[in-house]
Specification:
Bound molecules: adenosine-5'-diphosphate, magnesium ion
Helix content: 25-40%
Order of helices and strands: EEEHEEHEHHHEHEHEEHH
CATH class of the largest domain: Alpha Beta
Largest sheet: 6 strands, mixed
Distance between the termini: 40 Å
Length: about 240
C-alpha cells in the first residue's frame, strides 16, 4: 500500500491558484523533495497534506485512508509528523524535557505524572536523542545549543510522534552548508531505518540533489516535472532557475 497518495489537489487564494491539480505518491522510506521558485505553492501543498489548509478539491490518502478533511491533530495521531521551527521548542527547557513533552502529548495519557511513566518517557527521550546524536546534550537547555543542534532536537521531537510520514518545510533554512548535509544525511538514515516517508522542500540544490530520491518541480502551482535528481537536473527550466546555467 502506498504511504501517501496526493490526488488532484487544488487551492486558490482569491484569484491566485496556489496549487493546481497536484498529484503524486510517496512510499515508505522514500525522500521526496518539492522544489520551485518562491510562491510556486510548495507550502500550500505541504499545508494541505498536513491539514492546516483545506483543498478546494482533490484528496489526500494515507495508507489508503482518506484524510483530506481530517484535522492536523487527527493526522498527527494517524502518523503525519512535521518538524517545526525553533520558536516551537521551549528554549528554557532541557533538550530531554522537550522530547519528553512531545512523547507525553503523543501518548495523550493521564499517566504522565506517574513516576514509572515519567521514567519511561525519560528513557524513550534519551533513546531518540541518541538516534539524532544529541544524547550528550540531554540535560542542557535548548537555548544553549548551536542552531544545527536545535534542528536535530526538532527532528527528535518530530520522531517522538512515531510518524509514518514526515513533512519538512525548508528544514535547513538558516543553517551552514556543512550542517545542512549532515542534518539531511541523518534524516535519510532514520527514514530508511524506520521506513518513514519524508516530504521536504529545500532551496539548497546541493541538498536536494544529494538527498532526494525523487524530485517534484512545482511552478505556479502546477507540477511541471517529476523524476530522479539526475533526470530533474537535465530540465532546461531547472537549470536556468537553480543551477546558474
Ligand atoms: P512557496 O511555499 O512555494 O513559496 P506558497 O505556497 O507559500 O509558495 O504560496 C503560493 C501562492 O499562494 C503565492 O502566490 C502566495 O502569495 C499565495 N498564498 C499562499 N498562502 C496564502 C494565504 N494564506 N492567503 C493568500 N495567498 C496565499
Ligand atoms: Mg514556502
Amino acid at each position: 500500500m502506498t504511504l501517501l497518495s496526493v490526488q488532484d489537489l487544488s487551492k486558490s487564494f482569491g484569484g491566485v491558484a496556489a496549487a493546481r491539480d497536484v498529484s503524486f505518491m510517496l512510499e515508505r522510506g522514500e525522500m521526496l523533495a518539492i522544489i520551485g521558485p518562491n510562491g510556486a505553492g510548495k507550502s500550500t501543498v505541504f499545508n494541505m497534506v498536513g491539514g492546516q489548509l483545506r483543498p478546494d478539491h482533490g484528496a489526500v490518502l494515507l495508507d489508503g485512508q482518506n484524510i483530506t478533511l481530517a484535522s492536523p491533530q487527527k493526522r498527527f495521531r494517524l502518523g503525519v509528523g512535521r518538524t517545526f521551527q525553533v520558536a516551537q521548542t521551549f528554549l528554557s527547557m532541557s533538550v530531554a524535557e522537550n522530547v519528553q513533552m512531545a512523547l507525553v502529548s503523543h501518548n495523550r495519557k493521564s499517566t504522565a505524572l506517574w513516576a514509572p511513566a515519567r521514567m519511561r518517557y525519560h528513557e524513550e527521550a534519551l533513546a531518540l536523542l541518541e538516534q539524532v546524536g544529541m544524547a550528550e546534550s540531554a540535560d542542557h537547555p535548548c537555548s544553549a545549543l548551536a542552531y544545527g543542534d536545535v534542528k536535530r532536537v526538532e527532528l527528535a521531537i518530530a520522531l517522538a510522534g512515531r510518524p509514518k510520514l514526515l513533512l519538512m518545510d525548508e528544514p535547513t533554512a538558516g543553517m551552514a552548508t556543512r550542517e545542512r548535509a549532515a542534518l539531511m544525511d541523518l534524516t535519510a538514515e532514520i527514514a530508511d531505518a524506520k521506513g518513514i516517508g519524508v516530504l521536504f522542500t529545500e532551496h539548497d540544490m546541493d541538498v536536494v540533489f544529494g538527498h532526494a530520491e525523487r524530485v517534484i518541480v512545482l511552478v505556479r502551482g502546477r507540477i511541471i516535472a517529476t523524476g530522479s535528481p539526475e533526470e530533474i537536473r537535465q530540465i532546461e527550466e531547472v537549470r536556468r532557475a537553480y543551477l546558474g546555467d
